[in-house]
Design brief:
The protein has nine helices and eight strands. With 269 residues, the chain is α/β, with parallel strands linked by helices. It has an eight-stranded parallel beta barrel with strand order 1-2-3-4-5-6-7-8, surrounded by six helices. Helix 1 runs parallel beside helix 2. The longest helix is centred in the middle third of the chain and has 21 residues. The radius of gyration is 18 Å and the shape is globular.
Length: 269
């Protein structure tokens, strides 16, 4: 298991391109972010090389975030925009050496049954198109259940729905991004979910944050999670996607208190 600093959420005390060096100083050797597209890919690649940090995950462009877009994959009227967004993601992933890209589903009017059906149908078609079109790329395309407290109307909110969909599509380059914070908020527990879904091989990235405030993970929540992940033999990445209560470095003690310090190459804080 390898802890990954999510630089859209952590080290915001620094300019974005300087966060790679900051997280490296604290022992992180892997980084992820939501949207890197405001910066040249070559700059972010060079900054990572300089810091000795490997980029592992980005999101595909998700529409106009400021106007409420949370993904394009389930919008029938925006299929061309969705396709262009994945092409841009490929360009960045290739430059950064990233092998995992999260594709956000989007929000839909959950009170409109016809809109929901159309959204699920579009989502499935877009994922099949993506898996087929990108077979030659060394990228896993990930879908993530996101809780509807934080993102009202988000199409995909439950782990079972994500796994049922990908089991049915049966495409090797599609996977689930299992965010334990969203799982806890939506379903109230994670240990049984981990036991059920990790053995499937469909979980290709994980993330965590404290519940309910999405701040530093607490020992009472995550020490059992760490022990369970170790028992299950999870050896992938675990993205730290939380909002620090104060400065990032002031809050890194959770890594030791939960047991996750063993997943970093160095940890001196």
């Amino acid at each position: 298991m390898k802890l990954t600093a999510n630089l859209s959420w952590l080290y915001t005390e620094f300019d974005f391109q300087d966060r790679l060096g900051a997280c490296a100083q604290d022992g992180f050797r892997h980084a992820e972010c939501m949207f890197p597209y405001d910066y040249p890919a070559e700059l972010l690649r060079d900054k990572a090389l300089e810091a000795g940090v490997q980029w592992v995950l980005i999101n595909a462009p998700a529409g106009d975030w400021g106007k409420g877009d949370r993904g394009l994959a389930s919008s029938p009227s925006r299929r061309d925009e969705f396709k262009r967004s994945t092409e841009q993601a490929v360009n960045y992933a290739t430059a950064l050496g990233v092998r995992k890209v999260h594709v956000l589903a989007g929000v839909v009017n959950s009170n409109d049954e016809q809109s929901m059906r159309a959204a699920w149908n579009c989502y499935e078609k877009n994922l099949l198109w993506l898996a087929s079109t990108m077979k030659t790329e060394a990228i896993d395309w990930l879908i993530e259940p996101i809780n509807r407290f934080d993102v009202p109307g988000y199409l995909l909110s439950r782990q079972a729905d994500a796994h049922e969909l990908l089991s049915r599509l049966n495409q090797p380059n599609l996977g689930v991004q299992m965010d334990l914070y969203h799982c806890l908020r939506t379903e109230g527990e994670v240990l049984n979910a981990l036991s059920e879904y990790l053995p499937s091989g469909r979980v290709k990235h994980m993330q965590l944050a404290g519940v309910p405030n999405r701040d530093e993970p607490g020992a009472s929540e995550y020490a059992p999670v760490y022990a369970h992940l170790k028992m299950l033999g999870y050896n992938g990445h675990m993205g730290c996607e939380y909002r620090p209560k104060a400065g990032t470095r002031d809050g890194l003690g959770w890594i030791r208190s939960t047991g996750f310090s063993g997943t970093m190459e160095t940890f001196e804080t």
